[in-house]
């Protein structure tokens, strides 16, 4: 029988007299990347990439096979992780919003209960981080090379590659925390692999690989008008910043999903101007021949689209290779300091991403590739190595999970559920019979993905696109895992009615008034 760590309870009440020594409270290291598709992590069966350090966390702990987000876009997902509440409750529906830092978050609660709290990397919430003893965050989206960061109110320019810089700062935060004997909660949020996928020089040296097109790369979007109307197709990527072509020679023909007035070529030039001469030489040595070859070949039509797919995937996956290397550095440090066995290590992403499925990149849709996210945890006192869980879990669940793990009782109306029973392997019944999703960023955001909400059960998914459209989609995920056939019109009316009833119950449960 597995030994379970005694829960540490911090309370204003007088302590109970006992001869048993109290167990040390667990440390927490929460690592989040931006736009990491599950299909780009080898532990989830990917044949695109090897991620040994990320895999180690899950292999020595638990792998959640069905982990999802409530709103597949960067800022809103982060706000949900922090607050344990849906976007319409925490107030951050899309990236045009600003996070209300006065509301309760799990780092604030941990800080109040004696934890050293640190936030390093991508914040992306348009507000000053609160609830942290130390914070050092990218300004806005941040840059891959030589990022400018805000550290406790001071603006500092760093030289180096963003993923490495963030890891350096995270390690420094651990080494220099005061007092050093406090339990800690360290949040390490990487920019990678967010667009525009600029790899580190060490991984450019690996050269170009050739990848197989997804089976549904040339999806025609039958009976899926919202999917047909999006602007996140690989064929429309920017020739400059996405494809890394020579900015002095390329003519920009891509839409890139951008809002009107966005000058992709101008922004690409300014991005390259951030590089040092040494970095720029390595960059030109790698991408120069790619540009030369492209201009000689004069690709058109299907050949051009498939060339774009190969270029995109090569850069995207190399960005993840750097994440894996740097997660390895962090794990090595924890091991050297004897902290591995008393630290809950979490790796996840703010959402998933399309790697050519449906002919797309980006996220936003409730379809599986962007709706799902990798989620692995390691904590030996509680989690048996090699554990695998197939329950429906959400980014909404992280805050209440920590509260139960630490034995902290609050009056916060968390909307998620604690994952502790799943982590312990003690859950005997279905954890959830359905999960709720709501995406808002239309028409003012990028990529023209229409507003929609829906429910996913273990087998079915029902989606309603609304606002300037009224269209329902229904998928049988058992028989159609790629979500190619909308069966809403021909499905059993009893099934549709039952899913709509469950959907309404979730909307009422989560107080989503906009859709009632």
Q: How many structurally independent domains?
A: 3
CATH topology of the largest domain: Alkaline Phosphatase, subunit A
Topology pattern, helix = H, strand = E: EHEEHHHEEEEHEHHHHHEHEEEHHEEEEH
Low-confidence stretches: 1-21
Mean pLDDT level: 94
**SS-based class:** alpha/beta
List the total number of helices. 14
Q: Kindly report how far apart the N and C termini lie.
A: 47 Å
CATH architecture descriptor of the largest domain = 3-Layer(aba) Sandwich
CATH class of the largest domain: Alpha Beta
Percent of residues in beta strands: 5-15%
Please give the number of β-strands.
16
What is the assigned CATH homologous superfamily of the largest domain? Alkaline Phosphatase, subunit A
What tags apply to this protein structure?
single chain, Alkaline Phosphatase, subunit A, 3 domains, ten-stranded mixed sheet, four-stranded antiparallel sheet, 30% helix, 15% strand
Quick rundown:
With 516 residues, this protein is an alpha/beta fold. It has 14 helices and 16 strands. Helix 5 (162-175) runs parallel beside helix 10.
Describe this entry's structure for a reader.
With 516 residues, this protein is α/β, with parallel strands linked by helices. The protein folds into 3 domains: 27-196 and 316-418, Alkaline Phosphatase, subunit A; 201-211 and 227-314, no CATH class; 436-515, Arylsulfatase, C-terminal domain, CATH 3.30.1120. It contains 14 helices and 16 strands. It has helices at 52-59, 74-83, 87-90, 106-112, 162-175, 201-204, 225-229, 264-272, 277-297, 301-336, 368-371, 398-406, 420-424, 493-509; strands at residues 27-33, 62-64, 67-68, 116-121, 134-138, 148-151, 154-157, 184-189, 343-349, 375-378, 387-389, 393-394, 435-439, 452-456, 460-465, 471-476. A 10-stranded mixed beta sheet has the order 7-6-5-4-8-1-9-10-2-11, sandwiched between helices. A 4-stranded antiparallel beta sheet has the order 13-14-15-16, covered by helices on one side. Strands 3-12 form a two-stranded parallel ribbon. It is globular.
């Amino acid at each position: 029988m597995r030994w379970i760590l005694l829960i540490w309870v911090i309370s204003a009440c007088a302590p109970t007299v006992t001869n048993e020594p109290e167990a040390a409270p667990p440390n927490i290291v929460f690592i989040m990347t931006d736009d990491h598709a599950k299909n780009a992590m080898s532990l989830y069966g990917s044949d695109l990439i090897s991620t040994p350090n990320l895999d180690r966390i899950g292999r020595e702990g638990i792998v959640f096979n069905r982990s999802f987000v409530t709103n597949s876009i960067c800022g809103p997902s982060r706000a949900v992780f922090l607050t344990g509440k849906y976007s319409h409750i925490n107030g951050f529906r899309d990236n045009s919003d600003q996070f209300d830092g006065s509301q309760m978050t799990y780092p604030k609660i941990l800080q109040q209960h004696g934890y050293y709290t640190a936030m390093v990397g991508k914040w992306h919430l348009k507000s000053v981080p609160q609830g942290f003893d130390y914070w050092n965050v990218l300004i806005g989206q941040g840059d891959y090379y030589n990022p400018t960061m805000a550290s406790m109110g001071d603006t500092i320019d760093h030289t180096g590659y963003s993923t490495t810089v963030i890891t350096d700062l995270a390690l420094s935060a651990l080494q220099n925390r005061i007092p050093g004997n406090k339990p800690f909660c360290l949040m390490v949020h990487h920019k990678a692999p967010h667009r525009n996928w600029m790899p580190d020089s060490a991984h450019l040296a690996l050269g170009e690989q050739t990848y197989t097109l997804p089976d549904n790369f040339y999806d025609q979007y039958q009976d899926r008008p919202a999917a047909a109307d999006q602007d996140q197709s690989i064929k429309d990527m920017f020739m400059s910043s996405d494809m890394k072509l020579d900015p002095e020679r390329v003519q920009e023909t891509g839409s890139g999903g951008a809002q009107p007035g966005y000058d992709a070529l101008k922004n690409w030039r300014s991005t390259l101007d951030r590089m040092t001469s040494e970095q720029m030489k390595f960059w030109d040595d790698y991408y120069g021949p790619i540009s030369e070859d492209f201009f000689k070949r004069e690709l058109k039509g299907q050949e051009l689209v498939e060339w774009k797919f190969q270029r995109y995937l090569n850069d995207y996956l190399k960005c993840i290779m750097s994440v894996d290397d740097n997660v390895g550095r962090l794990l090595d440090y924890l091991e050297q300091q004897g902290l591995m066995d008393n630290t809950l290590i979490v790796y996840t992403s703010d959402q998933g991403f399309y790697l050519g499925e449906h002919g797309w990149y980006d996220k936003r849709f409730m379809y599986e590739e962007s709706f799902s996210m990798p989620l692995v945890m390691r904590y030996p006192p509680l989690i048996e190595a090699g554990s695998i869980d197939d329950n429906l879990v959400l980014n909404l669940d992280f805050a209440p999970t920590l509260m139960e793990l630490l034995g902290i009782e609050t009056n916060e109306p968390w909307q998620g559920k604690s994952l502790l029973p799943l982590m312990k392997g003690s859950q005997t019944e279905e954890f959830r019979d359905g999960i709720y999703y709501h995406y808002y960023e239309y028409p003012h955001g990028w990529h023209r993905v229409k507003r929609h909400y829906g429910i996913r059960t273990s087998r079915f998914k029902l989606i309603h696109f609304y606002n300037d459209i009224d269209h329902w989609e229904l998928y049988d995920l058992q028989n159609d895992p790629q979500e190619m056939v909308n069966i809403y019109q021909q499905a059993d009316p009893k099934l549709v009615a039952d899913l709509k009833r469950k959907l309404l119950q979730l909307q009422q449960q989560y107080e989503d008034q906009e859709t009632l």
